[in-house]
Write a structure and sequence with these properties.
single chain, about 170 residues, mainly beta, OB fold (Dihydrolipoamide Acetyltransferase, E2P), 2 helices, about 40% strand
Length: about 170
C-alpha cells in the first residue's frame, strides 16, 4: 500500500512551533493549494486548505524560516486521528510532513511582501497558468541546512516545470 502526499502551496499564516512535554518540536500549519479547475461561477480559481503537521527538524525549520504567504513544498503522508473534546468525538485528517522545502528565495519572498501581495491574490491567475512562480532557487530543506548561513547563499537552479515531480 502507498500513502504519499506531495503538496505545493502557500502558508496561510506564520508557523508557530510548540514543544511537547518530552521536548519534541511540533508545528501545525495550513497550506493553500490551487485547484486545477475553476469554481462554479467561473470567476476565479479555487483553493484547498490542507492541514499539515511537522515534527522535530522540519518543525524547527518551518518555525525559523517560513512566513505567511511563503511558497512551500511538503512531502509526507496522510493521517487520520480522533480525540474527545467536551464529550464529543472530533475527527482530524492531516498531512504529516516528512520533508519540507521553501520554493522561493528570501529575496523573492521579501519582494512579494513589499509589493503588498497577499497569498489570497495568488489565486487570481487565469486558468491554465499556475499562480505560483516557477522557482529559480530552492532553499535547502531541513535535512540540508546543518551549515546554513543567514543569507541563504546559493547558486540559481535552471528548472523547468517538466522537471518537477509535482
Amino acid at each position: 500500500m502507498i500513502n504519499r502526499v506531495v503538496l505545493v502551496g502557500r502558508l496561510t499564516r506564520d508557523v508557530e512551533v510548540r514543544k511537547t512535554q518530552s521536548g519534541l518540536s511540533v508545528a501545525q500549519f495550513t497550506v493553500a493549494c490551487d485547484r486545477r479547475g475553476r469554481s462554479q461561477d467561473n470567476a476565479q480559481q479555487t483553493a484547498d486548505f490542507i492541514s499539515c503537521v511537522a515534527w522535530r527538524q522540519p518543525a524547527d525549520f518551518l518555525g525559523q524560516y517560513a512566513r505567511k504567504g511563503a511558497l512551500i513544498g511538503v512531502d509526507g503522508r496522510l493521517q487520520s486521528r480522533s480525540y474527545d473534546r467536551d464529550g464529543q468525538r472530533v475527527y482530524v485528517t492531516e498531512v504529516v510532513a516528512d520533508n519540507v522545502r521553501l520554493l522561493e528565495s528570501r529575496s523573492q519572498s521579501e519582494s512579494r511582501a513589499q509589493q503588498g501581495n497577499q497569498y489570497q491574490d495568488s489565486y487570481q491567475a487565469p486558468y491554465g497558468q499556475p499562480s505560483y512562480a516557477q522557482p529559480s532557487y530552492s532553499q535547502p530543506s531541513y535535512n540540508d541546512n546543518a551549515g546554513m548561513s543567514d543569507d541563504f547563499g546559493g547558486s540559481p537552479l535552471d528548472i523547468s516545470s517538466d522537471d518537477l515531480p509535482f
